[in-house]
Amino acid sequence: MGERLCFPRCRLGRGTGLLQIVLGGLVILVSISSLFKFYSAGFFLHNEDICRHFYGGADVYEGFDIRALTARVGEVLSKMESLQDKLESTVQQMEKNKAMLDKTNISRLEYKKFLEEEVIQPLYNAHIALRQIRLPRIEGIGNTSMKEEPLINTFVIEEIRKYITPKENRLGKINIYGTERIYNTLGHACVLWKKELEEYMDYDIGSYCKDDWILAQKLMINGCDPLPRRRCLTRASKLYLKPYPINESLWRLPDGRNVRWSNYQCRNFECLSSKNPKRGYSKCIGCFELEKEKLKWVTNTSLAVDFLIKDALAIKPGEIRIGLDFGVGTGTFAARMREQNVTIISTALNLRAPFNEMIALRGLVPLYLTLNQRLPFFDNTMDLIHTTGFMDGWIDLLLMDFILFDWDRILRPGGLLWIDRFFCKRKDLDDYMYMFLQFRYKKHKWVISPKSKDEVFLSALLEKPPRSL
Ligand SMILES: *[C@@H]1O[C@H](CO)[C@@H](O)[C@H](O)[C@H]1NC(C)=O
Ligand SMILES: *[C@@H]1O[C@H](CO)[C@@H](O)[C@H](O)[C@H]1NC(C)=O
Ligand SMILES: *[C@@H]1O[C@H](CO)[C@@H](O)[C@H](O)[C@H]1NC(C)=O
Ligand SMILES: *[C@@H]1O[C@H](CO)[C@@H](O)[C@H](O)[C@H]1NC(C)=O
Ligand SMILES: *[C@@H]1O[C@H](CO)[C@@H](O)[C@H](O)[C@H]1NC(C)=O
Questions:
Q1: Which atom of ligand 3 is nearest to the CA of 246?
Q2: Is 106 close to ligand 1, i.e. is its CB under 6 Å away?
Q3: Are 159 and 203 in contact (CB under 8 A)?
Q4: Whose CA is nearest to atom 10 of ligand 2?
Q5: Model confidence pLDDT, tens digit, residues 405-452
Q6: For all residues of the chain together, what is the average pLDDT?
Q7: What is the pLDDT of residue 20?
Q8: How far apart are CA 428 and CA 458, in angstroms?
Q9: Strand duo 343-348 + 382-388: pairing
Q10: 121-132 and 66-96 are packed helices; what angle lies between their axes, rounded to 10 degrees?
Q11: For residue 242, with 0-12 CB atoms within 10 Å meaning exposed, 13-18 middle and 19 or more buried, which class applies?
């Protein structure tokens, strides 16, 4: 009975007591994080370091990313500040209504709700954010002078951080590569696409991914390449039918039900026809019409720049077995080559049409690759590189130089480089010709013919010489 009578007063008294404890805790936390702030501002560094820190202008300070660290600490500080403001204003409100305070009852439920939503949740978030900060290791990582893992404080989403963190071998052993840990990699331009990447990596582990390959491709094209791996299950079309047998699949339009169409303008393969003005894509128009594709590289055309596969193979009879088709297309070059018992891998991006799906459904190998990356083949391995429809007069000369040297790297001595209908402005032709000729390949064919009034086509069949140094 006595307890009951005193209840409202006691409860409020206890309430303010709790608040005081919470505020006290906050003061401690804020002090700790202020220490971080001082640290990041260079207060604990030696004189010389301070000079370097303030006048060096570098964001990366002796092996750690001080900007990312400061951003994380700043985030925690602002969370705590707003929590503190909220609590203080609540107390002020109580002060104002002091007279009322004795008389009003706040229900336990209200009190619980207040603590949960206004105090514990923000405090928890701040706590997690603080925990997430990886402080630089003074002794360095491994044998290096790096003080923290690259980019580790740049991303907030836990899944990205888990991905980036190097995975030490179990039991401290050396793995088959002879290294102590495995680094998952991430294109450095991902830093520029932080928001999009965090959206991409925001999923429940083990559940279905969003149907967001288009976001992934956007990230890749913009230099966030390689993209991180994900731990969610990719979606497939509603009803995946078994593909046609290989003797049919090469030259038959695949079943549209085997493609997820939601990110394309079209909803089936027939819609991708060049006759349809609303087909939605602009590169390689007509590629999805197999009766047109069937003519390529096997029938004479009026253009001297069109070489035939049989002529190319005749240069090196029996020697051309594997190769790369670098371009935009639906795999027709690879299909024709397959008929000649040559295995061709076709690069493909899904530029508003399902190029990868089409190539794979034809029974050929699509390589999902952007221009950003070094080719995933070893030196001196390919018998043939064929390129068409991709590189033309838009491409930066320096970029092209890096690409051509990479092609030269993977092409074996005696391998063929088939430049197929490269085109550019007539006035730029000399620059591009120099690009191709600088490697001193043997010229088997070299044809230039006009494309339009001020544009020209260039086709060439070149052979990489031996390079025994
Ligand atoms: C406060 O609660 C007591 C009993 O729990 C009740 O008698 C009283 O009327 C309440 N006062 C107000 C202002 O609600
Ligand atoms: C680190 O240094 C030690 C001793 O100097 C050496 O034995 C070891 O191989 C080094 N580890 C790496 C990964 O370089
Ligand atoms: C493809 O091969 C299968 C068996 O290997 C055969 O039954 C079928 O008739 C062939 N299709 C065509 C179009 O040749
Ligand atoms: C293509 O042209 C060449 C010579 O110009 C000729 O020998 C060959 O028979 C022609 N091939 C076809 C399929 O018309
Ligand atoms: C490809 O290989 C098959 C089986 O070895 C053979 O029958 C066929 O003649 C070859 N085709 C060509 C064009 O060499």
A1: 1
A2: no
A3: yes
A4: 143
A5: 999 999 999 999 999 999 999 999 999 999 999 999 999 999 999 999
A6: 85
A7: 61
A8: 12
A9: unpaired
A10: 160
A11: exposed
CB atoms inside a 10 Å sphere around CB 342: 18
Which ligand has the minimum distance to the alpha carbon of residue 307? 4
Gyration radius (Cα) of the chain, Å: 32
Residue given tokens 């001193």 in the structure block = 440
Q: 11: CA distance to ligand 1 center in Å?
A: 13
How far is residue 351's CA from residue 329's CA, in Å, rounded to a whole number? 10
Q: How far apart are CA 227 and CA 198, in angstroms?
A: 12
Cα–Cα distance for residue pair 435/117, rounded to 1 Å: 64
Helices then strands, counting H and E runs in the chain, come out as: 16, 11
**Which residue in this structure is represented by tokens 């050929």?**
364
What is the model's pTM?
Answer: 0.73
The amino acid present at 199, given as its one-letter code, is: E
Number of the ligand 2 atom closest to the C-alpha atom of 180: 13
Ligand 5 pocket, residue 452 CB under 6 Å: no
Phi, psi of 308 (to 5 degrees): -100, 150
Contact 329, 296 (CB under 8 A): no
Residue of 297, 298, 300 best suited for mutating to test ligand 4, as the one with most atoms within 8 Å of CB? 300
Q: Which of 414, 390, 415 is nearest to 403 (CA)?
A: 390
> For residue 388, how far is its CA from the centre of ligand 5 (angstroms)?
26
The answer to whether 256 and 269 have CB atoms below 8 angstroms apart is yes
pLDDT digits (tens, 9 = 90+) for 156-196: 888 998 899 888 888 888 899 999 889 999 999 999 999 99
Tell me what pLDDT residue 23 has. Answer: 61
Ligand 2 centre distance from Cα of residue 68 (Å): 29
Domain covering 246-463: architecture: 3-Layer(aba) Sandwich (3.40)
| Token representation of residue 410 | 């993977």
In order of 87, 155, 210, 217, the CA distances from 196 in angstroms are 34, 11, 14, 11
Pairing of strands 167-168, 343-348: unpaired
Q: Which alpha helices (H) appear in 42-62, and where do they start and end?
A: 47-56
Instruction: Compute the distance from residue 105 Cα to the ligand 1 centre, in Å.
Output: 6
What is the rounded CA–CA span in Å between residue 57 and residue 46?
17
How long a stretch of residues is the chain?
A: 469
The residue ranges of every structural domain in the chain are 246-463
pLDDT of residue 103 exceeding 90:
no
CB of 104 closer than 6 angstroms to any ligand 1 atom: yes
Nearest Cα to 289, choosing from 331, 240, 238, 253? Answer: 253
Structure-token pair, residue 46:
């030696």
DSSP secondary structure letter of residue 115: I
